[in-house]
Structures are given as C-alpha cells and as structure tokens.
Amino acid sequence: MAPRNPPPGNAQVADSFVPKRSARLWLALFVLLANFSWAVHYYQYDNLPAPLSADLAGKRGFSEVEAIKHVRALTQIGPHAIGSAALDYAVQYVLAEAEKMKKMAHWEVDVQVDFFHAKSGANSLVSGLFGGKTLIYSDLYHIILRILPKYASEAEGSAILVSSHIDTVFSTEGAGDCSSCVAVMLELARGVSQWAHGFNNSVIFLFNTGEEEGLNGAYSFITQHPWSSTIRMAIDLEAMGIGGKSSIFQAGPHPLAIENFAMAAKYPSGQIVSQDLFSSGVIKSATDFQVYQEVAGLSGLDFAYTDNTAVYHTKNDKLKLLKPGSLQHLGENMLAFLLQTAKSYLPKGRAMEGEEKTGHETAIYFDILGTYMVVYRQRFANLLHNSVIAQSILIWVTSLLVGGYPAAVSLALSCLSVVLMWIFSLGFSIPAGFLLPLISSSPLPFVANPWLVVGLFAAPAFLGALTGQHLGYLILHSYLSHSSSKRMQNLSPDIQANVIKFEAERWLFKAGFVQWLVLLMLGNYYKIGSSYVALVWLLSPAFAYGFLEATLSPVRLPRPLKIVTLLLGISLPILISAGTFIRMAGVLIGTAVRFDRNPGSTPEWLGNVIIAVYVAAVICLTMVYLLSYFHLSGAKKSIVLSTCMLFGLSLAVVLSGSVPSFTEDTARAVNVVHVVDTAEKYGEMQDPRSYISLFSTTPGNLKKEVEQINEGFVCGRDKVLDLVTFSVKYGCLTNDDIGGGWSKSDIPVLHVDSDTEGNGRTTQISIDTKVSTRWSLAINTEEIEDFLFKANSDELVPADGKGSNDGWHIIQFSGGKNSPTRFDLTLFWRKNYTKFAHNADGQKTEQRPLLKLRTDVNRLTPKAARVLMKLPSWCSQFGKSTSPHNLAFLTSLPVLF
Hints:
By secondary structure, this protein is of the alpha+beta class. The chain has 22 helices and 29 strands. Strands 2, 3, 12, 15, 16, 19, 22, 25, 27, 28 and 29 form an eleven-stranded mixed beta sheet that branches. Strands 1-4-6-5-7-9-8 form a seven-stranded mixed beta sheet.
C-alpha cells in the first residue's frame, strides 16, 4: 500500500520508469516465445535417433534397418483384414520369422513358438466404445513367442507380455497400424533372445489377429491360452498415426512399469495428459490394453505413434510416410526396459490390488524434451498439491488482511479481467468456427495445412483475450483511481496516474496466479494427473514475481513489471507443457477427418468449434501473464492491427482455395459401399434393391467428389441409410438398380422357425449369413427381454453381456474363413410387447424392426470398383470395426412378422 507521504525518491521512480514497450520489443518477444515453444515441441516429439544397421546395433542391439524389412514385407501384402487370404500370408510371414528365433537364440535361452488357434468366443467389455455390445470372434490365429532362460524354472511362471496385432482394416496396408509395431516386436525378440539367459522372468511376444474388429485377439488370448495365467505385466504397442515417437499414453494402474521405464529408457516419451484425455472418452478409440486391464487385471504400459493422425485407417498409412528413426526410438526404449524389468521381481496381479484400490500409488508421469521422465506417485502429488494450495491461500489471506477492503476489491476486479478474457477469447474464436463452413468448400480447410489454425483460430482468440483483459484493466484502473485519490493526494497528478497504472498491471499479473490456483485445486480434488501443469504454471511465475517484483518495504511505490520477470516466470512452464499443447492441437486437427461417426449427424461447424475452444483455452491459460504487460504498451494498436491482418489473410487463403483442404497424403475419409437391401416381410421376398452408397466421416457435403466421380449419385439428408452399427444421415446414392458382383444366394436369411405363447412369448429364429463371416445384428430390447444365441449348439453370448444402447443390443461377429455361418437365436419377449400395427384411434404406428442384420463381404463389385477408380486423389476409404466392407447386405425382421 502506498504511503501517505512518500519520499521524493519514490516519486522520481514512479515518474521515470514508465515502460517503453515498443512494437519492436513485442515482435521480438513473440518471435522468441514462438521459437522456444516450437523448439520444445521439436525436441520432445520430432527429434528421432538415427536408424542403426545390424552391424552398428550388434547382435544384442536393436536395428531399425532390419525392422523396416518386416514393415516392407507386411505392407507389400496389402490390406490384411480378418477373414482375408492376405491375412493368412501375413500370419505365415510372422510365424516364419518367429521360427528363425529358435536358431538365432543364445544357447542358454529357450525360445518357444506357439501357433495358436482360438476357438469361438464372445468379448463383452463393459466400458469404452463397446458398452452394450457383444463382439463374437471365431477362427482366429495368433503367434505367441515365449523367451526364457533354460536353467531358471521360476521364469516360466512369471512373464512380461509385449503385444500388438497383425491384422489391418480393409482400407489400408497398415504400415503404422500396426506393421511397424509387429516389426519392432520381431526385432526386439531377436535381441531379447540374446539376453534372456540372465532373466528372472520370461518375455511373451503376442502377435494377435482380430484387434481391429474389437480387441478380439487380445481377449481370446487372455481367456483361452494357458500362458496368459503367468503374465505379471502387459505392454501394448499401438498406432494412432504413422511414425514419430511412440509415446506412453496409458500406464498403470500400478506404477511399477512406468517407474522402470523412466529409469531404463534412453529416449523416454509419455504424458499423463494423454492418459487423462483417453480415459475421459474425449478420444474415441480403444486398444488391447483395455483387455489386459479390465479382463486380466494387469498393470503395464500402452504406447502409440501419434504423428500425422489424419492418415489413421486410410490408404495413407503407408511405408513412405514412416519417419526414419521412429522404429529405432521405440525399439531402443523397449529393449532397455525389458532388460531391466525381466531381471526384476514382479508380484502377481492380485498382490498389487491393495495398493491400486487406494489410488495413492498410481503414477504421475511426464517427459522433459524426450530425454528425461519425471515419475512420482499420487500420494506425493497429494502432499505437494495440498501444501502449495494451503500456502497460496495463506499468502492471499494475509495480503488481503494487510491491504484491507481496497485490496479485496482489486483482487475481485482482477479476477473479473480473467473471466472477461475467457469470455471474449471464446466469443471471438468460436464464430470463426461457424464461419468456415459458409465460406469454404470444406468445413475443415486446415486439415492438410495445420498452420492455418494459427490465423483462423489463434488470432481471433488472442485478440479476444486481449480485449477482454483490457476491459477488465479499464474497470480496475477506474476503481484504483477512485480509491487511491486520498492516499496519494501529496503526489503530482502525473505520478498518481503512473502509480495507478503500475498497480493495475500488477494485479492483472497476480490474477494469473488465481486462475492456475483454482485449476490446481480442482485437479487435486478430482485426482487428475495432469494437475502438475497447473502446479508449474502457478509456482514458476509466482517465484519470479516474488524474487524480482515483490518488496517488504511499506514505503515503496509500485513499479512497472520487468520483462525479465515474465521470461523467467514462463520459461519453465513452456519447457514442461508447450510441446504437449502443440501435439494435442495436431492430434485434434488430424482426428477431424473422422469426426462424424454417424455421417451427417453432427453439424458441419462442430469440429471447428471444438478446435476453436481448445485454441482459446490454451491462449487464455498460457498468456494470462503475458497479456498483463500489454495495457501500458504503446504498441497496442500495432498488435491489434497485426492480429486482424493475420486473421484476414488466413480467411483470404481459405476463400481463394489456393491451399487445398485435403491432399493425396492427407485425405478425406470416405466409404464406397455396394448395398444390397432386401425389403423383406416374413413369408414373402421382394426383389432386393441394389445401389452404391457414398458417405464420409469427414464433415461437409460430397458435391465436389460426386461431380468428379460422375456416376449418377444423388446426395442429401433424405438418403438415410441404417447400417445397423451406425446410421448415415447424409450421403449419396445411385438411383440405378445395380446387378453384377453378387447373387441372390449371397443374401442372408432371417427365418422364424417357431413362435409360441406359454408362460411368455418365445420365438426361435435361424440365421444364415451365407458367404459372410463378418456381420452385425441388432436386437430390439424394447420388445425383447432376453435371448440365447448359439452356433453349433454352443452358447456364444454370456448371460451377463446383454446390455443395450438406445434400445438395441448389437452383436458384431468377425472371424476367419472357417467361421460358422448358421446360428440359432431364441428371443424371450417382454410382457408388454407390441401386438398391433395400429393404435387405439386406428392410426398406423411407426415401428422399429425386431431384428436388423448387415453382412459384409470383402469383395469389389464392378460398379463399386468403377467408383473407386474415379475417387478423387484427395479421398481415401476409411475402415473401422463398425464400418461395412465394399459389399454389404441388409435385411430385417419386423416386430409384427
């Protein structure tokens, strides 16, 4: 608080130290911070080790050059989906390579290879993407490689699992997802086979099939293979893009694995921020690690490549885009980790449960520049966070008691400036998201050129944040002018004006402490691992301010904030978090190409708005300290004008179409499906309707694509197509009735064998899927209370696996060529089932079918092949567990059959 009669020296200080923050200074500051942030991202995510040849790696090392040979061999096979001949070739290749390990292993090492055939089973995971579904698998083959010392019998009963999948979706050769993972595992197995004579645990390498159809490979191994009972820790290798650094995005629940990895890995990479996002459901995906945690009760690590996520499950998941050094990075990390962990004592899964249930032993982890990993347990995090929170509250309470009522009001108004900053930042950036679909041929004009996001969203978000905080500054300045007039009546008006400006500037800087303190308190309360980010952004600027700005002298007038205070205060937070913020933005942009899971069901602007909100949030969180320096700057007009020009230039680029929304290497996700739709009523068969359907999980219309294909497509929202696992709300259909490439003998059959009324209504239905070993069946749970589902008299759906979503229980079946195609379904009706097609007024009521069935055939009909040939280069087919193949048959059974 300013003294009533300040000494002359203070008046001179207040008068002479008016900040001269010119436009050049701000330009230099922006260039410095931008380059620093990008350098952090580069070293954390893009700085890859040099690939090693076999000679350089040595017999016991890891060679990317050798691993790439496996990737090349698998991708040359082409797409190898479940049930395809190509998958048989891929499996045989991996089997042959695994058999070679026996001849190459150290003489004291035992290498066991099991070519495992999984019998039919049902995967009923209760969380994530698969709630309310039953995933049935059949005729799956896995290759399991166990490496252990010959003369250490205890190693046979304790194993570390390293797992990935051989199969791909039908639309890609799968260089990233996950031939790269398989290649790393093969090269790891070769290296481990030279070291295992000193192990206390065996290492099991699981090369499974069926992951892309719903994690069936991992599930069948865990529930059927005898070696699964020996596993103490599970490591899963995955890809959500292609290449780059393979980072840990799930760890635990026990911290042993991540602690060992942090100690052993040469290039550690992993962020608990990614784990928090993944577990929250923000990222709509699933990996085999879910099976190992949920079904087997194991702890471990889940790795994934996240570079160029737009190529995921498209034609562009190809070897050409795999960055050199990507496999070397993962391979060296994994080899060091396995060598350390395999020599350690690993408790059984049940032995860890007591620690896991408390939640105190889960790990907080993050890497610094990809060279060092920080790991500490939740118990320590609780103590640290509680201590910081308590001390921060104590400091604020003491400060307010000393400052009295004016200090309390000033704090409230400075917090108001933070609120206004958020409101205006969101208010400026979100409209840009609404605007883009109106002015661009694609709602996502930035996917192929992510740098456009800086101009389209970051510029208005920054301008809004500056506007909001400046409005708060003016309000705070007005209050301080009124409340300080009596205290500083002995000072000249010029000095008073400067003192008030400096005091307002300091209050705005300190409001940043409050913002991050609130976030730390919320994160600590909900035990969010990412709370360490709030901790760093609170403590580092607070210490810098305390050392360079604060004073214990009651007679010193406030001075303008020093630039060095800002630089010292935010350097460590940028070092810790800038790379992660940039990488998350890249992942968000990449996943936008598959944002519309039910094509046409989400507004075109929604993906843009999500990205706009994220960008605005990052700017408000990270620039709250920086923005407090602007209000006394003489460069405000230049900054505002430059920001507006950046936004305008970005809009001009979008309007001109000079930068493509999609390219051949960053393609729009589409599906081309030849649909044979049988409008069937029980007892009579109408001629099936046959047409080509074109739809896209990328938001936006398909006019440009349809014009180039020129095959008579008609597009609109009236072309609703129910594909059982999802619905197409906007798509394009051909009007002509298409023959060729299929026959009536391929059409699946739903046949009612009996329908009886006893203690309750029971219906027996036989299902024949004909040539299809991949199909989806929906059962109307509004009419049906329970059911039995059998193949060859074996019950396939467990009694506790019959939940529902939106009134449907979905059964998804996938298997090899020898899978059954005939099934028996017994339906047990609810007591209040529908009995009439008309209501009491005699009006016909809309009814959902009793059963819906879609069968998929991995076959190209002539018409579908012609459409695919004409598909623009910026488009690619997209595959997932719920999407149909290029030929799909639809049939249904009405409630009143």
